[in-house]
Specification:
Elements: E1 2-4, H1 15-23, E2 26-30, H2 31-34, E3 45-49, H3 54-66, E4 71-75, H4 85-92, E5 100-101, H5 106-114, E6 115-116, E7 122-126, H6 134-146, E8 150-154, H7 164-175, E9 181-186, E10 194-199, E11 212-216, E12 221-224, E13 227-230
Parallel strand pairs: 1-4, 1-5, 2-3, 2-4, 6-13, 7-8
Antiparallel strand pairs: 8-11, 9-10, 9-11, 12-13
Helix pairs in contact: 3-4, 6-7
The structure holds S-adenosyl-L-homocysteine.
The site of S-adenosyl-L-homocysteine has 25 residues, from helix 5 and strand 11.
């Protein structure tokens, strides 16, 4: 099983995710995610892996499952969105069945904190170039901006590449005016949540790090009081 833990807070875990962990004999995941659930791990075999150890973790999980164990691989947010789901299916190669248990992804959690910015078509783009070539990312940013999508940026400040967010903003500014609303949410649904409503022109004046999701509006997005809202087109 590949289990999505949601953005962090326990009340954002789905009952299905909790049941899957309870049913598992072995729980596999990053230290950071396992640290969120120490009470759920009692009496279980725990395989904690460091960051960037995804392929090894996937292999280990599949070996354990092939040996007859019930294994839960935990992943933050939704495991099928920049998570472990695809890797586990590939590693399993049909040898063991894989069940994916969805979770609340950062885009949903951040959007709920901001108001309703994802009411119409949106694109999610990760600014991490560890696995996606930079040229591909530039092409996708350009296409999303040209298509007037609301753009959600994951991994907005890549390790060692602080300038990606600046480049992304420059591309957005080719198509979107500087007054376009931007929402920045740090640690959404994690107890220490911070949210900022700003604009495309001003967004870089605020702290943006790896624990942040950035939502850039489209031509229908406005700020209504404390909320960022993308109109869906209903007539009043
Ligand atoms: N599978 C995860 C995403 C992993 S990519 C999911 O579905 O949410 C990691 C990126 O997700 C982070 O760099 C950040 O941009 C975003 N993210 C994850 N949790 C977050 C949270 N609680 N608040 C804000 N952003 C978050």
């Amino acid at each position: 099983m590949v289990v999505g833990l949601g953005p962090g807070d326990r009340n954002c875990f789905t009952p299905e995710a909790l049941a899957a962990i309870a049913a598992a004999q072995v729980v596999v995941g990053y230290h950071t995610y396992l640290d969120l659930i120490p009470d759920l791990l009692q009496g279980k075999q725990v395989v904690a892996t460091p960051m960037r150890g995804e392929v090894e973790r996937a292999r280990q999980a599949v070996e354990l499952a092939a040996a007859g164990k019930t294994v839960a691989v935990v992943s933050s947010g939704d495991p099928g969105i920049y998570g472990m789901a695809g890797l586990i299916i590939e590693a399993a190669g049909g040898r063991v069945p894989v069940r994916i248990i969805p979770g609340i992804t950062a885009a949903s959690a951040a959007a709920a904190s901001l108001g309703a910015p994802l009411m119409n078509d949106f694109a999610v783009i990760s600014l991490s170039d560890l696995l996606t070539p930079w040229e591909t990312m530039l092409r996708r940013l350009e296409a999303a901006a040209a298509g007037d999508f609301v753009v959600v940026l994951y991994n907005p400040r890549s390790h060692g590449r602080p300038d990606h967010i600046k480049t992304a903003r420059q591309i957005m500014l080719k198509y979107k005016p500087p007054a376009t609303p931007v929402g920045i949410v740090r640690q959404a649904r994690r107890g220490q949540e911070q949210k900022i409503l700003t604009t495309l022109g001003e967004m870089l004046n605020h702290e943006i790090d790896m624990l942040t999701t950035v939502v850039i509006g489209n031509a229908q997005t406005s700020i209504q009081g404390d909320y960022m809202v993308t109109a869906r087109g209903y007539k009043w």
